[in-house]
Amino acid sequence: MIKTATKQLKNVFLATLMLLGTISLTQPGIIHAAASSSIGIVNYQLLVQQHPDMAQAEATYQAAVKQAQDDFNAKSANMNDQDKKALYQQLQQGLQQKRMELLGAINDKVDAAIKEVADAKGLTIVIDKSQVVYGGQDITDDVMKKITGK
């Protein structure tokens, strides 16, 4: 009984090897494509933080925070706690929207620069450096040069 099971296991193993060999011979492009694909990596957070527009975006956001604080102080003086809470939440939502708007414009510019560099280098995939354990071509410096013009 053990000999029969061992013989069946050998047959399955041999059949699998033959199938894989046949696939690799008839579909060489699949294996070649996987081996030749190029992956780029970037430190996305660094690119956003050091983008030339970031200082202006941060200043604009801080001005919006100050305005929201002033609005809250002025409007909430005679409000009950529930109305104060509602006003606070409304102002917080406005600030979140403003932040997304400001960062969205910068993210779009960073994404465009990454795409340009990746296309120029023939890279098919670019992922964030924090997600990479090993390998990939780091293009962060090239993208930074594209963004800053230096």
Walk me through the structure.
GO terms for molecular function: unfolded protein binding. The chain is mainly alpha-helical and 150 residues long. It folds into two domains: 1-36; 38-62 and 94-148, Skp domain (Protein Binding, DinI Protein, Chain A, 2-Layer Sandwich), CATH 3.30.910.20. Helix content is 75%, strand content 7%. The protein has helices at residues 2-26, 28-36, 44-49, 54-75, 81-121, 140-148, and strands spanning 39-42, 125-128, 137-138. A three-stranded parallel β-sheet has the order 2-1-3. α4 (54-75) packs antiparallel against α5 and α5 packs across α6. Residues 12-17 and 24-36 have low confidence and may be disordered.
Set out the fold topology.
Blueprint: H1 2-26, H2 28-36, E1 39-42, H3 44-49, H4 54-75, H5 81-121, E2 125-128, E3 137-138, H6 140-148
Parallel strand pairs: 1-2, 1-3
Helix pairs in contact: 4-5, 5-6
| H/E topology pattern | HHEHHHEEH
Q: CATH superfamily membership of the largest domain, which one?
A: Skp domain
Helix content: over 70%
Q: Can you tell me the CATH class of the largest domain?
A: Alpha Beta
| Spatial strand arrangement across the major sheet | 2-1-3
> Which architecture of the largest domain does the CATH hierarchy give at level 2?
2-Layer Sandwich
- CATH fold description of the largest domain: Protein Binding, DinI Protein, Chain A
User: Given the structure, what is the number of helices?
Assistant: 6
What is the SS-derived class?
Answer: mainly alpha
Q: What percentage of the residues does DSSP assign to strands (E)?
A: 5-15%
Cα distance spanning the termini = 74 Å
If you average the pLDDT, what whole number results? 80
